[in-house]
Amino acid sequence: MERKNKEVGQTALRQEKSCGALCFLTENGVRQVLMVKHRAGGHWAFPKGHVEGAETEHQTAIREVMEETGVPIEILPGYRETTSYSPCRGVMKEVVYFWAKALSSQTRPQPEEVQIARFVPVGEAMKLLTYDADRILLEKAEKIQKGIDK
């Protein structure tokens, strides 16, 4: 439901917040990131979802990655990035992403929301990602990782 600010005649946006993670693992020397292809819209992205109740951002990210992909994760320090967008009229959504270590390579997509959940080599992920904002997140995470590996 949209609310109008009577003084300036502008629509007040409903604020939403989601959290997720860029989840990495290395297999056979290849660095991979966990991605999901959503049933609604068919876009490729990183797992994320709405904050519930009094959850912390980390708790939300860990829960949502597990729910959407079946992969347990450990949030790593050094990366907290946000993006904002309007998913529909009257709503502004902030998404907080963390950097995470995947504790398993086995995926189990959530059938209601996720068509595919899989680990993808980072170079391939750059091509699969639907939104430029997600590519920017991955590029930044990779730059940080390269600095750590030196």
How would you describe this structure to a colleague?
The model is unreliable at 1-9 (pLDDT under 50). This protein has helices spanning 57-69, 122-128, 132-149, and strands at residues 3-5, 10-12, 14-27, 30-38, 44-45, 48-50, 73-85, 91-102, 114-121. The relative contact order is 0.24. The protein contains 3 helices and 9 strands. The strands form 2 sheets. Strands 3, 4, 5, 6, 7, 8 and 9 form a 7-stranded mixed β-sheet that branches. It is of the alpha+beta class. The radius of gyration is 16 Å and the shape is globular. It has one domain (15-149): Nucleoside Triphosphate Pyrophosphohydrolase, CATH 3.90.79. Strand 1 (3-5) and strand 2 (10-12) form a beta hairpin.
β content, as a range? 35-45%
Mean pLDDT: 89
Structural class: alpha+beta
CATH superfamily: Nucleoside Triphosphate Pyrophosphohydrolase
Beta strands, count = 9
CATH architecture: Alpha-Beta Complex
**CATH-defined topology:** Nucleoside Triphosphate Pyrophosphohydrolase
Globally, the shape reads globular
Described by its quaternary structure, the protein is single chain
Largest sheet: 7 strands, mixed
Please specify the SSE layout and strand pairing.
Blueprint: E1 3-5, E2 10-12, E3 14-27, E4 30-38, E5 44-45, E6 48-50, H1 57-69, E7 73-85, E8 91-102, E9 114-121, H2 122-128, H3 132-149
Parallel strand pairs: 3-8
Antiparallel strand pairs: 1-2, 3-4, 3-6, 4-5, 4-9, 7-8
